[in-house]
TrEMBL record:
Cofactors, names only: pyridoxal 5'-phosphate
The entry's keywords: Amino-acid biosynthesis, Aminotransferase, Branched-chain amino acid biosynthesis, Pyridoxal phosphate, Transferase, Transit peptide
Single Gene Ontology BP annotation: branched-chain amino acid biosynthetic process
Family according to the record: Belongs to the class-IV pyridoxal-phosphate-dependent aminotransferase family.
Sequence intervals crossing the membrane: none
The keyword Lyase belongs to this UniProt entry's keyword annotation: no
Keyword Transferase belongs to the record: yes
GO cellular component: chloroplast
The name this protein goes by in its record: Branched-chain-amino-acid aminotransferase
Length: 355
């Protein structure tokens, strides 16, 4: 790949007035759209990451023997940048993604960028792709950092070289339902994670592992799948791409982080937001039976934000929430969180980073 833009500084990119890309901003979904630049930084096993640079977005070259291709030694992250009405750009808790990548890297025997390297790289990539950040209120720029064993291996071992990449794409709603409630089916036999496994880190294999159940669910008209724990088959775990919350009166419960649940940054933020709104939040084992008399159910994730659940089907029985409409609690939490992320209210939490 030909490196370009390497000499541009953050302040150059910040002060530049760029025209918006010429795309249909009113109909963004969650499909990949190539943008202008990506970030690339490498490191050999035993050394630190260095010499990261912005490059023109394009294909990358990998040895067919790369650790990530052969043994799945890879992690990804997801975060978003929003354009404010005044034109400034906001990131949401990028250091949390950096820290989560570091924890995941430790589990996957990979070196990882420092928090500062990660956050600086995210800022540089966002600013270089400024024209792809949707206008205020039309969506966000989804930022996808990747960490992979790019060096060649044949026997099973950590790769000798690692690549940290960031690419970005403008996005709107994740689910085709848009802001309308989603419909879930509970999977009884296929599981997302096992105790002692990698369910608690954002490794690429966790997501490939759910495709079979997810495809079957979509074929039957469901939006996605809710997984149960693999030991007792009765505790809620998470949905393919997001965490789950169950509302009963003023109590909101969500599966506790115990190795098989992905520690979502939106999950963590919603817990704080809900408490600040007077709800009691419990992180604990949540049984599938609790879904039967819940008032509301919603999912959280960077991509899905806060997605209300309209119905859940389990072993042929369907439970409908709020007559299939959006529940008041989901609506309230969505609104408080997104107003903060988009810079529409003062950020008393100190979560946003303005570029
Ligand atoms: C995210 O919400 O950012 C994720 O990483 C989930 C992904 C499957 C879209």
């Amino acid at each position: 790949i030909t490196p370009v833009f390497c000499n541009a500084t953050l302040s150059d990119a910040r002060s530049e007035t760029v025209e918006l890309a010429n795309i249909d901003w009113d109909n963004l979904g969650f499909a990949f759209l190539p943008t202008d630049y990506m970030y690339n930084m490498k490191c050999s096993q035993g050394e630190g990451f260095s010499n990261g640079e912005l490059q023109r977005f394009g294909n990358i070259e990998l040895s067919p023997s790369a650790g990530v291709l052969n043994y799945g030694q890879g992690l990804f992250e997801g975060l978003k940048a929003y354009r404010k009405e005044d034109g400034n750009i906001l990131l949401f808790r990028p250091e949390e993604n950096a820290l989560r990548m570091r924890l995941g890297a430790e589990r996957m025997c990979m070196p990882s960028p420092t928090v500062e390297q990660f956050v600086d790289a995210v800022k540089a990539t966002v600013l270089a792709n400024k024209r792809w950040i949707p206008p205020a209120g039309k969506g966000s720029l989804y930022i996808r950092p990747l960490l992979m064993g790019s060096g060649a291996v044949l026997g099973l071992a950590p790769a000798p070289e690692y690549t940290f990449l960031i690419y970005v794409s403008p996005v709107g709603n994740y689910f085709k339902e848009g802001v309308a409630p989603i419909h879930l089916i509970i999977e009884h036999d296929l599981h997302r994670a096992t105790p002692g496994g990698t369910g608690g880190v954002k490794t690429i294999g966790n997501y490939a592992a759910v495709l079979k159940a997810q495809s079957a669910a979509k074929e039957q008209g469901y939006s996605d799948v809710l997984y149960l724990d693999c030991v007792h088959k009765k505790y809620l775990e998470e949905v393919s791409s997001c965490n789950i919350f169950v509302v009963k009166g003023k109590v909101i419960s969500t599966p506790e982080i115990k190795g098989t649940i992905l520690p979502g940054i939106t999950r963590k933020s919603i817990i704080d937001v809900a408490r600040s709104q007077g709800f009691q939040v419990e992180e604990r084992l949540v049984t599938v039976d609790e879904l039967l008399d819940a008032d509301e159910v919603f999912c959280t994730g960077t991509a899905v934000v806060v997605s209300p659940v309209g119905s859940i089907t389990y072993r042929g029985e369907r439970v409908l929430y709020n007559k299939g409409g959006v529940g008041a609690v989901s609506q309230q939490l969505y609104s408080v969180l997104t107003r903060l992320q988009m810079g529409l209210v003062k950020d008393n939490m100190n979560w946003t980073v303005e570029l």
